[in-house]
Amino acid sequence: MRKIAAFFAVSFLCASLSSCAQNSERKTIYAMDTAVTVTAYGENAAEGIESAEKEIYRLDKLMSRSNKNGDIYRINDNGSGSVSAETAAVIQTALDVCRSTGGAFDLTVAPIMDAWGFFGHEYRVPENTEINRLLKSVGYGNVTLDGNNVILGNGAQLDLGGVAKGYASDAAAEALEKSGVKSGIISFGSAIRAVGKKPDGSGWKVGLTDPQSPDTFIAEISIADECVSTSGSYEQVFEENGKKYHHIIDPSTGYPADNGLASVSVIGGDPTRADALSTALFVMGLEKAIRYQKADGGFEAIFITDDNELYYTDGLEGRITAAGKSSLNMSKIN
Ligand code: ADP
Ligand code: MG
Prior knowledge:
This protein is an alpha+beta fold. It contains nine helices and 20 strands. The chain is globular and about 60 Å long.
């Protein structure tokens, strides 16, 4: 599984130099089905990372489908019940994105994920009849959220996999800040959240994975105090009979979204929403996604197509640079 990753070369260098004025610490843990790296600078760096780590593990339990003591497991098991205020807030943001994207994002996609084996990483191509049967319980309209109470109608099951990493990256950033860290970055691979700027006052350089060669970067962008969320067809993928299947599902068909996009990155100030949006815009395809971004205006985006075209929204002018791939065409969306 390859994901977007922050460029850490500069901070590695700093950590290894005894003359470097700023203390720096970094730790990688495994949570939410991925490697998570927390980097922090300054005298409270170690304390901040410890506190961020606790937050990430706590939220993983709370929002995972498989943890019996978590909110999502319990609600899926009972069909209704009350959840923590945090889970309710994430469900609310997810529902907002479900509605505003006309269901391109759908937090009830769980049974379809299971049928394809993405949940347990035991991949298979389901029969069309199986998908159609399962689709009957898929639909965000089956989810009622009233305060902290959730009711699932029609056998619906919740899956916060498309949104929880964004929320957790934000909570981890808050934990760093509460510990007094003014400069740091949290990377869940596909969800990156920066605290402040780098200690030298410049922005954090975040590499965008090349969908055609996921071990390399295709471009980099500079961020400060904001997040980058990426959804890409290369992130969880398997091949059967020469055809590739990935983990971002079009809820209207039950099949992996297949509309010419290879990845979508959303850059903005709200990591929870950005996470849901990158998944949704990927499902919508380039044209609809651009229309949505223009109408919304609250975030920036980068689209990479299957045929190696990169499009970025005009707010990113001057913040995005190509990583040198000669065949890449990079255009600003007007
Ligand atoms: P990643 O989880 O790799 O960071 P995404 O944020 O795009 O990537 O989320 C993909 C995850 O979201 C899937 O693993 C699944 O749990 C869930 N998901 C897949 N398709 C959708 C969809 N259309 N709407 C909501 N969630 C989805
Ligand atoms: Mg997402």
